[in-house]
Amino acid sequence: MNILVTAGGTSEKIDNVRSITNHSTGRLGKAISEEFLAHGHQVTYLTTPYAVKPEQSEHVTIEQIETTEDLLSKMNQLLSEQVFDGIIHSMAVSDFSSETSIPEEALTTALAKSLADQQDFTQSALEETVKKVMEQLGTQEQKEKKISSNTERLLLFLKKNPKIISIIREKQPTTVLVGFKLLVGVSENELINVGTTTLKKNQCDFVLANNLETIHGEKHRGILIHSDGQTETAETKQAIAQLIVRNVEMKGANHS
Known about the structure:
The protein is an alpha/beta fold. Helix content is 37%, strand content 28%. The chain has helices at 27-38, 68-81, 104-116, 123-138, 165-171, 188-201, 237-255, and strands at 2-6, 12-13, 19-20, 42-47, 60-64, 86-89, 96-103, 154-160, 176-183, 206-216, 219-226, 231-236.
């Protein structure tokens, strides 16, 4: 099988020296890739600079990205160049990226100027004025290569990123697609319900649902949700990798 695995966590630049990222190490994605390789499959491993990676071999191709924009571009390229029998999208993709930043003084000055010209002081009118000011400031181009620290507060404007997984089924309708859902401090029922919603929304074959509070080193409780509602549970990264590989192989065999 020709397999694509995404792993690690994207990083979104604020300026040339600062960024927003997450704590994903890519260890689960690495374990999944190595399990596929051990079963004789070909793996494309799409990851980030600081994530762990499987050892180089003739059966693995490692591709590297940094931002969500990079990921979207690389995914579109890979999905147009190859047909993948299975895609395991375990990468922790940033929900938001930096649009611009402004010092506190810029916000207060802009608000004061707009409110000084205000004629209508009803709540709805004031809300509309504030909204317009925020929209104007938030869409300004970030010109500084390094944001000055000469302010007590820095306002960072974030814009919502596209959901990468949503493009996969459209571009590769026959692939066996495994999505991932990470929540924190929820019940198992809620975890399964949210994971099932993710599965249906993105037309996945499986979703691996996990709770951050149950992840400690190699101990990693994961619930693999099937498209028919069946669930299977594993308690370590290695067991999760084995569970995913076995199910992708079975589903792939049924597709062929």
